[in-house]
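Re: your question about (S)-2-hydroxy-acid oxidase

S., sorry for the slow reply, the queue was backed up all week. Below is exactly what I fed in.
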Amino acid sequence: MITVEDFERYATDHLPRSVYNHVSAGSNDQQTLNDNRSAFKRYRIRPRVLRDVSRRDLSATILGHEFPLPIGIAPTGLQRLAYSDGDLAMARAASSHGVIMILSSYATSSIEDVASAASPAGHLWFQLYIFSDRRHTEQLVRRAERAGYNAIVVTVDTPYAGKKYNDERCGFNPKVRLPNVEGGYFNSSVSSGTPDKYDSSEISPSVTWADIQWLRSLTELPVIVKGIISGENALEAVANNVDGIIVSNHGGRQLDGVPAPIDVLPEVLAATKGTKVEVYMDGGIRQGTDVMKALALGARAVFIGRPAWWGLTYKGEEGVQQVLQILRDELDLALALSGCASVRDLNPSMVVLGPDVAEARL
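Result:
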């Protein structure tokens, strides 16, 4: 395995067709899914030369914690469909690299078991949907607190699930346990329906910024909103005292036709300038140069979803470790070739939109 895309090719050949189609696909015509990746090609790197790059520092500070890499693992559900250990293997791989893993509400392992797998070096955030039954939402927050999670990531772009043509064509209907949403009110619908059907009926479509305030009142943990793709919403996030924003369009799986995260990253950063709100990004990252471009534009860190899933498919924990190592090595080399000894040396002047580098403002 040489590149991240090698892992996806492996997954194409080895996963059941319905599973691969579900994970790889976007919503509707997949315009946004495809643009998430192609958008990075619109940005060119403007390197600096004659700099001492004999030693490089890839570390990043995120919510006051120091990490060896500005790369984390985004929340993805149904991981036991990729590998028998699923989320447990993912957590161990993230822990071995010292990076953040965000556990999905639709994980196939419990909040507590994943925390145990990640110990002692793991750093976990918990991804939360605000459900129609707010009591269940609060119970998930309490479980994450007790298990030692370091932040709550609330997904805000999913009042309803996006339409996935591939799922309908393939009849995607996995029979998997989702321990964090089973029991009581949720048990029958989770065990008998697909995640998307479940999402549409049980994730609350009435969530507003008042619910973010309610969530903040429940916990002392940092609250991060995931799914912001406009400066206007970023301003609202700032006004509601969130701790972080993940610029994300849900991997192209919700509203089709929205911009790629890398394209809206600058306006989100402009809206949060001068505030304590940290800005991260996910979507379309497949190479170390993609990571570098996002960091140069101002993201504090990036998160990968599908690449980690493909790594899990390949060899479980070892496969995810390999994906992270490839991205780490590619980022390290890109920094050196760009004249940067540290990710902190990156700045927006080092990236230009479009092929005409000569027109870049110096």
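The radius of gyration is 19 Å. DSSP finds 15 helices and twelve strands in the chain.

Happy to talk it through on Thursday.
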